[in-house]
Structure formats: C-alpha cells, structure tokens
Amino acid sequence: MSPPASHCRRSRLLSWPLLFVAILVVHSLAIYLFTRGFLLTRTELDLHSSRDDRPPQGDVPTGCASWPPPAVDRLVIVVLDALRFDFVAPSTFFPEKHPWMDKMQVLQKLAANEKTSARIFKALADPPTTSLQRLKALTTGGLPTFIDVGNSFGAPAIVEDNIMHQLVKNGKRVVMMGDDTWIQLYPEHFNKSFPYPSFNVKDLDTVDNGVIEHLLPSLHKNDWDVLIAHFLGVDHAGHIFGVDSTPMIQKLEQYNQILEGVIDTLRNLSKPGGTHENTLLLVMGDHGQTLNGDHGGGTAEEVETSLFAWSPKTPPDAVLSVLDDSSCNVGLHGKEVCISTMQQLDFAATISALLGIPFPFGSIGRVNPELYALSAGTWVNHRMGTDACTNDLEAWMMRYSEVLCVNCWQVKRYIDQYSATSVIGFPSEDLQHITNLYSRAQTNWSASLRTTCSSEMGSQEKLEGKGPVLRQQVDAYTDFLQTFAKLARSAWTEFDLWSMGIGLLLMILSVIIQACMLVKFNTICQDQKSASSSIIPKLAFAFALVAIRAASFLSNSYILAEGKVANFLLATSCITSAWHSMVKGKFSVENLVFLLLNISVRFGIEIGMSKQLPAPAITKDHSVGTICKIFGVNSCNILLEIFPIISIALMAYIILRCLSHAICQRFLKYFVLSGTLVSYVSIAFHWASETTLFSHTGIVQEFGRSLAPRLVYAIGGLSVAISALYRIFSLTDHLKMNKRITILSAVMLSSWSPTILMLLGRQAPFVALICMTGAWCIIKLQQKHQKESQLSVADPVSVIQWSLLAVCLFYLTGHWCTFDGLRYGAAFIGFDHFHIIRQGLLLSIDTFGVSHILPILSLPFIAMVWYNTTSKDNKLKDVILNNTTQALLMYGLITAITCTLTIICVNIQRRHLMVWGLFAPKYVFDAIGLLLTDLLICLASLYYR
Question: Which residues form a coiled coil (predicted)?
C-alpha cells in the first residue's frame, strides 16, 4: 500500500533539492578529476638557453660548438591576424577564383619579380588555432597546449623560454604595436609598445589605425632591432561578416596599401650604409580562418596561413638552388610565382638563427632552409682560412649544416632534460630511435668536414652528384628533427590515467544512482500498478534514443554531424508516435505539425542559420540565392531586413497574450507585461537601427545600437530579481499548485527570453517560433496519451524529445561544440569595450541559452499537462510536484548519460589525430553543459517546489 500523499510530498520537499545539490557536487568532482588527468599541459621546463651554453666536448664536432652568428641586423614582423593562405597566394594556384583573392598584389609582384629575395610560404600551424596558442607556439618553438584555450581572454605572461626573452637577454631592442595580447604575454620585454584592445570583434579599425600611426615613423628610427606590428582587422571582419564580405575585401586592400608603404620605405633606406641595409621583412599570419571567419580547430582553412619573406639586400643567384620549385605557377601578370611550405613550429628556431641569439630551450622546430637562405647575410662565407670554401652554394650549405648541428644539439638537450624531469616522458622505444638518429647524424659530421672543401671543382662535382656529402648531412639532421616533431605531436600530452579513471568511475556511479532515484521515485509516488507497467516501454524507448546519440560520439564524423543525429532521433520519436496514433486510428494534427517542424529544423541545421547569414546581404552561393534570383536581390535584401522586425512583433503579441492569461496577480502581471513589451520593442529598434533601409543620426542611432540592448539586459535582470523575491516571500503560496508554477514559470521565461533573443540576432524569431511550436506539439501529444493511459508520471519520451529539440536548436542557431563555434560577436551586442566578466556572461548566455537555460526553465510546462484531467486539489498538487521533480530528474539523467559517454569516447580516442581539434572541445562543452544543467535543476527544484 502506497504511503499517504502528504508524506510523499513532505519527504520530497525536504530531500529532492538536497539530492540535486549532491548530484551537482559529485559531477563537479568527477569532471574536475577527469579534466585534471586529461587536459594536463605538457611539462614546461623552467630552463633557459644562454649565450655561454656549449655542448660537451665530443658530443658535437668543432664546427658547431657555438650558437650561429647573426645573419640579419634588423627584423620587421608584420602579423596579419587570421591571414588565410588564399589571401596572399595568387588565384591561379586554386581551382576557383573568389572575390577575396588577389587583393594583396604587392606581395605577389615581389614574389614574381624578385625570386632570389622574396618568397611566399604556406605556413602550417598546429591546432588549436586560437590566437594565444599560436603566439605562444611561435615564440617558444613548442607545440601549443589545449588547456591554454581557457586563457584566451586573459593571457598569462609566458615564463617558458622564448625568443622574446632571448632578444632582451642578448641586448636586442624590441618595439611592438597593435594587439595587446603581446603585452599580456610579454609584459616587460619591449623597449617601446603601442598596445590596443583586441577583444572587441565589432571594431575593425581601432587596432589597425593605431598600428598605421606608428609603423612608418618607426621604420625611419634607429632605436630598435626587432619591430612587431600586429593587425587585427581581417580577424575581426571574418568573425562578424565572414570571408566573402565587403568589409573583408576592404581590409585586404587597405593592407596592400600599407605594405606598399612599408616596402618602399625599407627599399629607400637599404642603400649601403643605410638603416635597413641588412633588414628582413616578414609578413605572416598566426592562423587561418574558415569562410565563416572562425578559427580554433584543426581544419585545413584554419591551420593554413601565409608567410611572406623579403630581403632588400639580394642574395646570390645560388639561392634558387635552395628554394623549392615544385609548386610554381604563372601569376596574374604572366610571371612565374613559386610557393614553398613550412611548419610554423620552425619559426622560433629560424628567427633565432637569423638574429644570432640562442634557441629557446624548449624549441623543437628546425631552422627552415628556404627562409634562412632568403637572408643575404647567410651567404657570407664566415669560415675564413685555408679550408674556406669558395663556391657560394657549398659555403651556404656548410653554414646551414653547422646551424642544423647546433639546432639538433639543442633539441637533443631538451629531449634528455624533458625525459629526466617529466612524469611520463616519451616511450622508451621511440626515445631510443631518436637517440640513434642523433648519434648517426653527429658521427657522419666529421667525415663531411674532411671531404667537403677538398677543392672547388671537386666540391662542385660532389654537389652535382647523386649523393653529395653536405646534402646527406643536412638530410640526416632534418630526419632527426622531423622525427622528433612527429613523435611530440602524437604523444605530447601526459595523461594521468588514475585521475581520469576515478573521474569516469564517479560519473558512471552518479548515472546509476540517478537512475535508481528515478525508479524509486516512480515506485513511491505511483498510485497504479498498471501505470507502472505501461511506463516501462516508454522508458526503454527513451533510453534507446539517449544511448544511440551518446554512442555516436565515438566517431569524429558523427560529432561534426551531432545536430543532424539529434534531429534524426527526434524525427524517429515523432514518426513512432505518429505510427502509434495511426494504429489506434487517432492521428492528430499535432503529429503532422511535429513532423513538418522536424523537416524545417533539419534544413535550418543544414544551412546553418547564423553562420550563413552574418549580414543582411545575400551572397551568390547562398542557399537562398535561388529564391532571390526569382524575386530580385534587392527585394530579397529588403525582406531579410524587414522580416525579423515583423516576426518579432508578431511573436511579442503572442507572448503578451499568453502572459496575460497565465499571470493573475496584478502588480506582477503589469510589470511583466510592460517589461516584456519594452524589451521586444527595444529588440526591434536595435535591428532596425542596423539596417540600411533607414537613415539614423545622433541619439537615435546610439539608442538603437547601444542603449536598446542594455535596456533589454537590465529589464531581464530586474525581472529575475523580482521573480526570486516573489518566490522567497511566498506571495504565490495561496494559489493552487498548477497556477503557482504557471506564474513562476511564465515570469522566469519572460525574464530570460528577450536577452537570449537579442543575442541570437535576426534569426531569433524563427528560432523562437520553432521552440514554441515544438513545446506545443510535445505538450499536446503528452496530454492525449495521459488521458488514454491515466498515467500520473512524467512522460520520458516527452522529456527526451524536449532534450533533443534543445540540441537541434543549439546547432540551428550556428553554434558548434568547438571553440571556433563560439559566436564572439554576440558578446559585444550593446557594448564597444571589452570586460571579461560582462562579455563572458553574454557569451555564455548566447551559447547555452536555447540549449540549456530555456529548456530547463520550461520543463514545468511539460510536467503539468496532467492537471487538466485531475479534479481533486490534493491529488492535483501531488501529481504536479511529482511530475515536475521527475521531469527535472529525467532531464538531468539524460544530460549525465550523454556526458558520461562523451568522457568514455574521449578516453578511448585520446590518441586520435583529432583529439584536440574535435574530441576535447566536445568534452569541454558537454562537461560545462552538464554542470550548468545540474545548477539550473538545483535552482529550479527550489524555485518551483
């Protein structure tokens, strides 16, 4: 016999919120332990190279017993953030020409006209491709670490040995202008610095204008040895407008003019005895970007960037024998252009060799031969004496071999130190193979010295032979360096398997406990045995859907297609429900609407609403382009600008009607209605102020773009506070349970919705319509089922459908479970300046608004469908409280199972090629999503109980 309803209710009121808190604590501990074991950074050695460092006698031959001498006097580094490879390379190198190509023709002309002193490189970055990690990797010469993504908004100073430290330590004067990330990474390394804030992605010009102001005047001064100019306009234009956009093309054309001025200045001052007689210019990107302007992952578009090198002082023609000519094509002006490929990992070692400073202790890159050869200073025969080689190419190869010798000794020194101090180090068999390669290369070096410079003619014959001695020596050193770099890429991260195992075990135990709690809850508060037996098939079906989705995370392809997988499973549940209704002869309009809704969601995910529509204008290759051809592009653009405003007005009318019926208390009703009305009017005003159809000046434009969003945020925060006060002071306790929860839910949803819609942008009305229609279909179908079966428990299929719809909305709104899927522009809606807490909060709301916040706050509406069929107040109160708690528990269990399977998949795939580009970001998003879900469930259990 079941316990009395009052006993069940009192027990639940006391215990369930505490149990939800306990679940949150267990999940937090489990995720902390697993993250600590999985996302460990590589061991950073607190050691620095010194000018006095010398390899022990006998380890290396006499010819490479010291650091390389300097080859350039001054270095100008122009960093164009997010510089794609096809921004610089001629369009003739690609199958199809795009509007953003061939805009930087000054670099292409130099590469074609001055082959011996100018070169375009395809530079390959190592993921993750966020700016912080790329700058850190470029300066330290090491591989980036995944955990540093978390520091991208507040970069810590780099303490690991790096070229900036070596420059200062060896008396080089450094001037920096542009992205203030450099100041955060190297706060005390610049003689002069002109930093500008870098995180306002809506601002395309402030940083660039600051660099322009100081760049050319600095080139005429003699108070620096290394000049760094970091532009950000292309990166920001990509984030906001995408690659195929007018602002992007304008930025590239502006950069072309700036570089023309830089090159002319360097050329004019490069006469003998001039300031830039022996200066090297590098124009480079830190990473690439996708067509949507995103970066952070490991796709080809993100890791392929450009590097252009030019020396005003021309090396001898023999440099062409060093440069790779395998990738050459005719440029736009009819002249041949050749492009080389290099790893960004080699940047630090190459720059160190050119400037004559010690290599950073942790650098594992190789001095790139082509970039090293483009400096005329590397062709000066520094080996004076009777054994001096007279052939230019042989002299250069001798010098480069000595540089590689030092390069290999430095890397081998690092390997030995790392293996001795690291917890795990490298596998012994791989380490032995590396050691053998190094020993073989050094053993052959003495023989190379004896045979290289026997006579000029003899040397030339050797160089032209099948296996020249110096070439073999270079290949031996290169083999050692590249083999170790490959080993480091495949096995760099040290996984703490104990912490990972304990964390995974806690997650599995928490899922088992949650499942047992759900079964026990159904058993205690169930009135009918038949109802208990009829719920089992639904639980089995719901569990099958969750398990299939979670198991798909084993494949990187299915992770990329997670939105489509969720939509497929949602459609499967919808079709199953429709088939079940047709068998009973009761097919309803809700089934048809739900099916049509799934189709629209599928197409929404396919075209990626916000990703494909970053601006009002329609591009020719967009999916809507065919429709625009029928009605005209201008008409289509006008509709795209007006339709969201009309839609938000219609949606506001529907929501206001619903709120007026749902809320009965006068003050609360008028406050919520007026606040909601003002919020939606502000949203419409904000969108209208950004269109090109209306001319705005002065205060009107300021209100639409800045004050209107802030007003929406303020009203939302005030509404949440008033709702909490109403709940704390129990001003709704005299109402019936269904009315009380309806009021509290309506107020909470009306508080959060405008802010989320504002951040989503003009796609918001479409998303809101899908969300409301989906909720209506799920509730109506659940009501009909419960009328038939008289179930007094929450329907697990309805809860899983609501969860799957939330996942679909996450991807439909343009989000992805990768760091390049974060919509950084949303964090600056209403604000022009960066503040880490404010922008971090807005970015979090935008990321998790439609996938976590709104779905969890809406669960009571799904749980309360039973009250329409219940007449007794006491039973009504029990059923509503039971169903609300069950729905929250089911939703939390679904999220926990998904996160647990994600952890298992990440653990299995921890050595996968895409672990840092795909599996690890997926884990981070799911772990944060689980903790956010648990937190919201805890608050909801207290708020709605």
Answer: none
